[in-house]
Amino acid sequence: MNTKPPPVDLTINCPLVAEILTRFIRCEIQRTGFQRAVVGLSGGIDSSVTTYLAVRALGAENVLAVTMPYTTSSQATRDDSRLVIEQLGLPTIDAPISGQVDAYYDQFPEASQMRRANMCARQRMTILYDQSVAFEGLVLGTSNKSELLLGYGTQFGDMASAINPIGDLYKTQLYPLGRHLGLPESILHKQPTGDLWVGQTDESELGFSYATADALLYLLVDRRWSKTELLAAGFDPSFVDRITERVRRNHYKRRLPIIAKLSHRTVDRDFRYARDWGT
Q1: Where are the beta strands (DSSP E) in the chain?
Q2: Which of 5, 79, 196, 200 sits in a 20 to 30 Å window from 46, CA-based?
Q3: Cα 44–chain centre separation
């Protein structure tokens, strides 16, 4: 596989993007009648960027950071989360999930690492939505464009949210934005990981780098290049097929559940309005 992407310019205007996303968060939350937000803070680049943007939009006192470690969560994850919380002065709740996850899997000791990882993601989202009621705020999404396109996330777990400010930014674009926002250096330099199990990293699990994937995804999705054009750019044929198939196969994660059509106005098929309909 070609591990070096062709020269693809994914440069973003960080001050402008930060301003757009700050206004997006403020506008979308206030439009629904809320003033606050809840973020699941893992100490990674995605959740940290989202948190910093939320503080810009709403003020630190209106952003609840929830940390939800599991037994295998690394100390670095905990330390980076704490660094963000202290730097921004956020209200926070620490809600470890080991007890409920392990109690369930005591019945299924043969469960794979992936089953347990998905359960952790869904338990965390359950906690976030419960805390959103208590805090009277909306849950902010932390899935980036690379993850959404590749399906690298848990449906109704980490991919769930009320609004998602970073879903149109590729993973590699979050680092310059994070630097612009003032994220701690430790977060900007550590390997991306979902902290799913000891030693897990995103790129080792995926089998390719975000730099290579983002270059291909940008040309495939944003520029609508054909397979012929991608091959001419120097991508390995098997890599192009692999990424294209992942994008296609995981489309179900990026949309609402399909409803069987029986009437003339089926929800989300014919009965479709903009999100801000009526406001």
Answers
A1: 36-40, 63-67, 92-94, 137-139
A2: 5
A3: 10
Q: Which of 218, 137, 207, 204 is nearest to 173 (CA)?
A: 218
Give the integer Cα–Cα distance in Å for 19 and 53: 9
DSSP label of 140: B
Give the pLDDT score at 5.
59
Q: Are the C-beta atoms of 5 and 212 separated by less than 8 Å?
A: yes
Helices (H), the chain: 14-31, 45-58, 75-88, 98-105, 113-135, 145-150, 171-181, 185-189, 202-206, 210-217, 227-232, 237-249
Q: What are phi and psi of 5, to 5 degrees?
A: -70, 155
As a dihedral over the C-alpha atoms of residue 142, residue 146, residue 148, residue 154, rounded to 10 degrees, the angle is -70
Instruction: Give 3-state DSSP helix, strand, coil % of the chain, rounded to 5.
Output: 50, 5, 40
Q: 223: how many CB neighbours lie within 10 A of its CB?
A: 11
The answer to whether 147 and 171 are in contact (CB under 8 A) is yes
Whole-angstrom distance, CA of residue 164 vs CA of residue 139: 9
If DSSP codes are grouped into helix, strand and coil, which group holds residue 109? coil
- Residue for token pair 């001419």: 232
Half-sphere exposure of 217 (CA within 13 A, CB side): 27
Q: Quick one: tokens of 1?
A: 């596989």
Q: What is the average pLDDT score of the chain?
A: 92
Residue with tokens 């700050």: 22
* φ, ψ dihedrals at 66, nearest 5°: -115, 120
What pLDDT digit, counting tens, does each position of 247-272 carry? 999 999 998 888 899 999 888 878 87
Q: Residue type for 241, please?
A: D
Q: If you compute the radius of gyration of the chain from its CA atoms, what whole number of angstroms results?
A: 19
In this predicted model, what pLDDT tens digit does every residue of 61-90 receive, in sequence order?
A: 999 999 999 998 888 889 999 999 999 999
